[in-house]
């Protein structure tokens, strides 16, 4: 088994991880990509372990891929949604976590609308906790799967120029990606209207562009972000039509990037709002489907490394 240079108990964010730790996770995930493409996808690495997916927000890709990842490693996986749980009856986040903790689970994957909620919860439980997205703070497994997708296509992360475009203000995906790409030596550009870029974001070591055409010049990777209406109070954009005109990715804007530039989107996509279907479905340039595939492998790698540190409960007092 690969010697793990990942010594954290939880995976709460990319911030604070070093290049070796990120590389370790990506290398392990790379191995799982091959396994997932074979007929026999199952391993017994996590036999006897329990993974609970606790989701207080909607999810398609993240929840399903954590479920598949756990099952492919042989764990028992349970999905819990806030709707249908006692959260609806007023149970607090901590009480819910403590209840689950009492059932001796090994890994808790949590998605929550409040930034910081997952960290708070990780301080109360004995199991390993993985952040499946907390508010507009972090979404570490998304940044890891994005990095794996880029690394497999481009052969590296270091030295690439990556444009992250759109609703950066509300995006935990953007925040985790900025940390990861910076640490791995890529150059990050943020592109969007002033209303959708956090003030002072330059301090994160990125270049900021309000003109998408200028921002896309010569980039290697274009990451498009969804307009997150559910996190907006008030009007951040004048109209969908105007937004698409200035900040939607279409073939004309794509032509300004490098000829071999690739297109990414974490999903769910709003076709015709931030991205034209023509571009999203471009088989040569769009990596959107690969991102989903890498999501399972990356989540297997995360479950793998975090459970290596758990005490063997049968042997423990
Ligand atoms: C993202 C999320 O929920 O943060 N989706 C995902 O996990 N792939 C991005 C989004 O909702 O726009």
Automatic annotation (TrEMBL):
The keyword Transferase applies. It is an enzyme of class 2 (transferase). GO terms for molecular function: amino acid binding; aspartate carbamoyltransferase activity. One of its GO terms (biological process) is 'de novo' pyrimidine nucleobase biosynthetic process. Keywords: Pyrimidine biosynthesis, Transferase. Residues 159-305 form the Aspartate/ornithine carbamoyltransferase Asp/Orn-binding domain. Residues 9-151 form the Aspartate/ornithine carbamoyltransferase carbamoyl-P binding domain. Gene3D superfamilies: Aspartate/ornithine carbamoyltransferase. Its EC number is 2.1.3.2. Pathway: Pyrimidine metabolism; UMP biosynthesis via de novo pathway; (S)-dihydroorotate from bicarbonate: step 2/3. GO terms for cellular component: cytosol. HAMAP family: Asp_carb_tr. NCBIfam families: asp_carb_tr, PRK00856.1. Belongs to the aspartate/ornithine carbamoyltransferase superfamily. ATCase family. This is Aspartate carbamoyltransferase. It comes from Magnetospirillum fulvum. The lineage of its organism: Bacteria, Pseudomonadati, Pseudomonadota, Alphaproteobacteria, Rhodospirillales.
């Amino acid at each position: 088994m690969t010697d793990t240079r990942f010594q954290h108990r939880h995976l709460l964010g990319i911030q604070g991880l070093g290049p070796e730790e990120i590389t370790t996770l990506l290398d392990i995930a790379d191995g799982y990509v091959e396994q997932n493409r074979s007929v026999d996808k199952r391993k017994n690495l996590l036999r006897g372990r329990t993974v609970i997916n606790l989701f207080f927000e909607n999810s398609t890709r993240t929840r399903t891929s954590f479920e598949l990842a756990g099952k492919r490693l042989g764990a028992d996986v349970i999905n819990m949604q806030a709707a249908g749980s006692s959260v609806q009856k007023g149970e607090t986040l901590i009480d819910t976590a403590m209840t689950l903790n009492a059932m001796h689970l090994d890994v808790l994957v949590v998605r929550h609308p409040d930034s910081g909620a997952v960290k708070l919860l990780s301080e109360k439980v004995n199991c390993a906790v993985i952040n499946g997205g907390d508010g507009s703070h972090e979404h570490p497994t998304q940044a890891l799967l994005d990095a794996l997708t880029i690394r497999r296509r481009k052969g590296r992360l270091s030295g690439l120029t990556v444009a992250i475009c759109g609703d950066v203000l509300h995006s935990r995906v953007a925040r985790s990606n900025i940390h990861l790409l910076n640490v791995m030596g890529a150059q990050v550009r943020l592109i969007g209207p002033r209303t959708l870029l956090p003030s002072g974001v330059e301090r994160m070591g990125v270049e900021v562009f309000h003109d998408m055409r200028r921002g896309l010049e010569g980039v290697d990777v274009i990451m498009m972000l969804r307009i997150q209406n559910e996190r907006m109070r008030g009007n951040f954009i004048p109209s969908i039509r105007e937004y698409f005109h200035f900040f939607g990715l279409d073939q004309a804007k794509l032509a300004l990037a490098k000829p071999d530039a690739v297109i990414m989107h974490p999903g769910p996509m709003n076709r015709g709002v931030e991205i034209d279907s023509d571009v999203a479905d471009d088989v040569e340039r769009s990596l959107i489907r690969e991102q989903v595939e890498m999501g399972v492998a990356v989540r297997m790698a995360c479950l793998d490394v975090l459970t290596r540190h758990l005490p063997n409960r049968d042997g423990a007092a």
